[in-house]
Amino acid sequence: MNFEEKIDLLNQLLEENRFKTLREEIVELNEVDISEFIEMLPKEKAIIVFRFLPKDLAAEVFANLETEAQQRIIHEITDQELGHILDEMFMDDMVDMMEELPAGVVKRVLKNTDEATRGTINAFLKYPKDSAGSIMTAEFTNLRANMSVKEAINYIRKHGADSETLYNAYVIDSNRVLDGVITLRTLLLNRDDEIVSDLMEDDVTKVHISDDKEDVAYLFNRYDYLSLPVVDSEDRLVGIITYDDIIDVMEDETTEDFELMAATIPSGKAYLKTPAWELARNRIVWLTVLMISGVITGGILSRYEESFTAIPLLVTFIPMLTNTGGNAGSQASTLVIRGMVLNEIEVSDGLKVLWKEFRVSLIAGLFLAVINYIRLYISYPGQEKVVLVVSLAIFATVILAKVVGGLLPMAAKVFKLDPAIMAAPLITTIVDAMSLMLYFVLAGWILNL
Amino acid sequence: MNFEEKIDLLNQLLEENRFKTLREEIVELNEVDISEFIEMLPKEKAIIVFRFLPKDLAAEVFANLETEAQQRIIHEITDQELGHILDEMFMDDMVDMMEELPAGVVKRVLKNTDEATRGTINAFLKYPKDSAGSIMTAEFTNLRANMSVKEAINYIRKHGADSETLYNAYVIDSNRVLDGVITLRTLLLNRDDEIVSDLMEDDVTKVHISDDKEDVAYLFNRYDYLSLPVVDSEDRLVGIITYDDIIDVMEDETTEDFELMAATIPSGKAYLKTPAWELARNRIVWLTVLMISGVITGGILSRYEESFTAIPLLVTFIPMLTNTGGNAGSQASTLVIRGMVLNEIEVSDGLKVLWKEFRVSLIAGLFLAVINYIRLYISYPGQEKVVLVVSLAIFATVILAKVVGGLLPMAAKVFKLDPAIMAAPLITTIVDAMSLMLYFVLAGWILNL
């Protein structure tokens, strides 16, 4: 049975008030699916279904719900029920939730946690939005360096239930300074009497609370870690970041790149869940800037008014020429931006990119110019000179567009800007102006205008 | 010490022939870093460094090398050394390598594996390129349902060394049919005398050998799995897929989307490592198609030649108008494409998208039209009617562009095409034609041309 069929079955059971079967079916589901089901339900039914869940599952489902649904449930349940859920939740999920909830609800949530948790939550909430601290969790397994493998495994079995992962254990000294890391794999594959300090990795890859989460994602990606330790300025272990949160970071960063590259201010929300006025606001800024920058192309065109009133045919090719330039430029900029995101291209590779785009544009420009020449030569008999102007303009535009498109994202990086803003929309605007200028200069020479 | 500093140190040690220290330093590094260091070295030095590595580390480093470097090393080492490396390598890495190596080298590699491995490699090589089978590995841990927790843990400790992950164990029956899955976490957190079949998840999420790897990535992403079992048509467990390979799949798919959205044929290679002629070839196809589709805008413009020779000022605003349309359209199409990739937007949401884009475009179009009217009214005194034409054209273009931009990616999906091709370049071309038509029709009415 796939997810949709399961949802249909659950809805039917709910409608027929067959709560016992419903409960049996629902606890078999993954918490992600249960959350999605609850989000689909009207308020009263959502709370009925939520109350069916056993305690730990309820906490997992709750952590997966979107803020609105969390809020609705908090509103309906007792303080005691809320306390149970909060007890079972991981710190990173709790902090994520707190960041979104309105102040009044946060107050009630904090009231229902114990004092230690309250302190940790307040500390975690202070970490900057994009920092490692903002995505870490406080529940990890720590071992002592002098434990034997047997002691370590027993310790994990006894105390591990609250840890977000058991698969990496962190070795700390009495001041909580991070000394090493050991995987559960290493523990299990070694003899019981071996000592943790002999087996652990002591040159630990770690991140600092204030490190940018994108840099943390890069480490996970490069080395395939399951989790990474987060330390404070005294090298004390304060939390861990797990791969599942990093997958979300990677996905959000990619979405942000797509949005930036389409000249939209990133919203951090799913498309269908963003109100129309908010989508409009995020898009208007760049649309306006780019529209007003049309003053440049307008200026160029009005300077050459005499040329195109003398030979109106010249106007016919303007959209084709500017589009080809825009496309050629955004091909280059997109590939370079993506290469920079993947750390395949560094700022120091500037000359390599320049040389590569130059060769690519020579090949592509020549090809397009020839195709264009042949096509127009046949379609516009007797206009050989105009056809030559258009073809030469295409050749030069492709070269210019690709070189500019390849270099601008790198220039952005040098000036500490996100390379993604140097994408199609901006490149198109810049290349448009250059290609129109070229076109009319060539027309002036060849057609004696 | 960061990666660059380490590399400098290693290079210095290598230059000074201080091999003992070099070896000590190098075995402390992560295999990913060692691979990158070896790839930077000239051939003779690369093989010296590679031979310093202990056996298991050598296999891990080897698996991380790019094909060219692997080939150089295979060429230099003895059959016995090659056999040792192959023994230690995981099946998925071996198959990845085989797919890239030239036939002669593959032959030599196969000769140095045992018969069982050779059979598995040959079977794995037959799975289609984008299938689950092509990214799975054959080394997993399997348990029997009637084992106790203690027996299971002992079994894993004894037989787990060759498994790619110990953290999910698969329960199979005597016909290798998949019966359940149990995490190492569950095993460790339960009492020694509990029975695996009582603890395991028996409604196992699994994928079929021929499933598309993008669908597999979606499952990992939705449910945060560490690994998923792969079964054949008789439901027999044939391999597993681990999260690290899925991160690569996700990254490749995203790169492919970026390439497609920039009207480039995906190359599957890093930018700096793709030869110029290959980059040119991947870009020329769409550039040519889009350039030739300029015949449409050209046709429209030549139909209205009389209009713009009568009022040449109209030409001045063409690039601004078409760019605004292109940008407005690609904002919509990019967000919808990304939403579809993330499974946030389904084809059945078509009406919702239409309604949303319609409202967004009303707001954005009105705003842009007003700004434009004010700007042009000031800049072009006495041309109120032309200014009105341009502003109305912008308003209508933004609406058209956003609705078309929002719907075309969904239409692509209906026709089983990748929505990513309905991105900026194609949308721009389509919207250009529509906006120019609108512009001159409006000009005809309002200016009586």
Automatic annotation (TrEMBL), chains A, B:
Topology of the protein relative to the lipid bilayer: Multi-pass membrane protein
InterPro entries per the UniProt record, alphabetical: CBS_dom (IPR000644), CBS_dom_sf (IPR046342), Mg_transptr_MgtE_intracell_dom (IPR006668), MgtE_N_sf (IPR038076), MgtE_transporter (IPR006669), SLC41_membr_dom (IPR006667), SLC41_membr_dom_sf (IPR036739)
Function: Acts as a magnesium transporter.
Source taxon at top rank: Bacteria
Record-stated family: Belongs to the SLC41A transporter family.
Chief site of localization: membrane
Localization, UniProt: Cell membrane; Membrane
CDD domains in UniProt: CBS_pair_Mg_transporter
GO molecular function: magnesium ion transmembrane transporter activity; metal ion binding
Keyword Disulfide bond applies: no
Domain CBS: 136-199, 200-256
Subunit organization: Homodimer.
Membrane-spanning residues: 360-380, 386-408, 420-447
SMART domains: CBS, MgtE_N
Species of provenance: Proteiniclasticum aestuarii
Family matches, as PANTHER family: MAGNESIUM TRANSPORTER MGTE (PTHR43773:SF1)
UniProt entry keywords in alphabetical sequence: CBS domain, Cell membrane, Magnesium, Membrane, Metal-binding, Transmembrane, Transmembrane helix, Transport
GO cellular component: plasma membrane
Official protein name in the record: Magnesium transporter MgtE
